[in-house]
């Protein structure tokens, strides 16, 4: 007898708990389309910028954003919240909504928006984009296996960038394909793909790695891993390589250790990475450390001062960018550290809201009975924290080039456990499929 049948009245065994309509809460097409649309929103701007901008004369932080890209950002800033609100309303009308999951993912954006009143500013739609995307993912109930869309996207962008490096290097490499920089690990020009900088390209590739491990067929998975690894090396992004190395270490450990040992070691690794993200920018005193990130950290710490609780405001970097560019560099539009950037823009209250999502993502992945999604989730969290030590992987304001790669998996892994619990309480249990049994720990 199924778990659902035990809820029926003893006098009427035919009565069972109502099962929600599958089309509204568990549509494979809707789930993967949602992931694809959020990825397209992240990548469309950089793609248009690449096609319409002369890379040989492009200077990061100085070249004016193309009007088409600005229009795309404005349209998305209004459209995504509207679609998310409609999706949440539709689910509330016809099915049950996961209240705890919804609150978890919208809280950072709502707190950041409300925090603007403290700084005497009116909140904008851009402040709510992370909350809107999270609400959309929760309402559609995107699952870890749906993240293969991001894995394939990473592979396609990597392959296209490599081809373009030989066919039209001026379009996808820094300095028009002619400059060889000291930071290049291959001796070749730095591959930036469709992004404004090779570091951004490298982080995009690294964040797609865990999603590639969710691809079931080895004939598809291995070519994706190889092409992404190749492009990652050509980017010469040290931050991205460190993050990718941490992710691969998690995958290797999952093959060497029993589940309990793997989970324990991985959680310890995640805690170490989190400590590094917090400690490095607040203890560094050498301005030249970490490729002059030390100077950026010192400046941000001094600017933050005693405003740690509410920060300096979500628009502080934009408002003070001319000064930051003059004092530091064009790369000073954020603090080059996830924790310090969050503190500057939103203070401790926003930081705690984001840390809650990270913690839920880690323990949600650790508790996942399916090996592939558990390993991918833990690898993603550890890698994201490793990258966050010296970069800001996603913006708090707006929806940037890396937002889909960083935030979609984070939200999915953070909410999957609660969504699965609610789904199992509503749906009748049945024998596990052969694919499900094969994917579970054993």
Automatic annotation (TrEMBL):
The keyword Membrane applies. It comes from the Bacteria. Coiled coil: none annotated. Keywords: Ligase, Membrane, Transmembrane, Transmembrane helix. Residues 225-355 form the O-antigen ligase-related domain. GO terms for cellular component: membrane. Pfam families: Wzy_C. The chain crosses the membrane at residues 29-48, 75-95, 124-140, 147-168, 188-215, 227-254, 260-282, 338-365, 372-390, 396-414. The keyword Cell membrane does not apply. One of its GO terms (molecular function) is ligase activity. This is O-antigen ligase domain-containing protein. It comes from Microbacterium enclense.
